[in-house]
């Protein structure tokens, strides 16, 4: 899932996720495939970003129901939000985490349209 990004972790000096004080903090996950290529559609990018979040949760023994705070960043939010929301509804069920949706002029690569960062509560 993260092979195409291992070099970025070192180059830019960050971890994909960090456990601290009862929480798992997940760095922004973009909608790229494992090989690093980005799908054209916002829906597919959203699906990949959420799959990346889910995989980090799985590695920590958690799942999407453990999310407590999520922030998503959207390029061209006025036109991309409907596609994003349709996919989000398939992955995120009630009770919902807190969620901030932020429009931005761009992400780390011009073809990327969605990035998701999240915080999950660790289980006792």
Please give a structural write-up:
The chain is α+β, with helices and mostly antiparallel strands and 124 residues long. The protein has a single domain (2-121), classed as 2-Layer Sandwich (60s Ribosomal Protein L30, Chain: A), CATH 3.30.1330. Helix content is 32%, strand content 29%. The chain has helices at residues 6-12, 42-59, 77-91; strands spanning 17-20, 23-30, 67-75, 98-104, 114-121. α2 (42-59) packs across α3. The longest helix is centred in the middle third of the chain and has 18 residues, at 42-59. It is globular and about 40 Å long. The relative contact order is 0.24.
Task: Based on the model shown, name its key terms.
deaminase activity, alpha+beta, 32% helix, YjgH-like, five-stranded mixed β-sheet, YjgF/YER057c/UK114, Enamine deaminase RidA, house cleaning of reactive enamine intermediates, YjgF/YER057c/UK114 family
Question: Strands, helices and their partners?
Answer:
Elements lengths: L5 H7 L4 E4 L2 E8 L11 H18 L7 E9 L1 H15 L6 E7 L9 E8 L3
Parallel strand pairs: 3-4
Antiparallel strand pairs: 1-2, 2-5, 3-5
Helix pairs in contact: 2-3
Largest sheet: 5 strands, mixed
Q: List the total number of helices.
A: 3
- Proportion of residues in β-strands: 25-35%
The appropriate CATH architecture is: 2-Layer Sandwich
Helix-strand category: alpha+beta
Protein name: Enamine deaminase RidA, house cleaning of reactive enamine intermediates, YjgF/YER057c/UK114 family
Pfam families: Ribonuc_L-PSP (PF01042)
GO molecular function: deaminase activity
Organism: Alloyangia mangrovi
């Amino acid at each position: 899932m993260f092979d195409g990004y291992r070099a970025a972790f070192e180059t830019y000096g960050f971890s994909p996720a960090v456990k601290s004080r009862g929480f798992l903090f997940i760095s922004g996950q973009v909608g790229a495939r494992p090989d690093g290529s980005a799908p054209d559609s916002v829906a597919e990018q959203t699906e990949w970003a959420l799959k990346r979040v889910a995989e980090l949760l799985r590695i920590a023994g958690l799942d999407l129901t453990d999310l407590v705070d999520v922030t998503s960043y959207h390029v061209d939010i006025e036109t991309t939000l409907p596609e994003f929301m349709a996919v989000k509804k398939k992955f995120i069920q009630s009770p919902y985490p807190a969620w901030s949706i932020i429009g931005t002029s761009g992400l780390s690569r011009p073809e990327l349209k969605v990035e998701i960062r999240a915080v999950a509560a660790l289980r006792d």
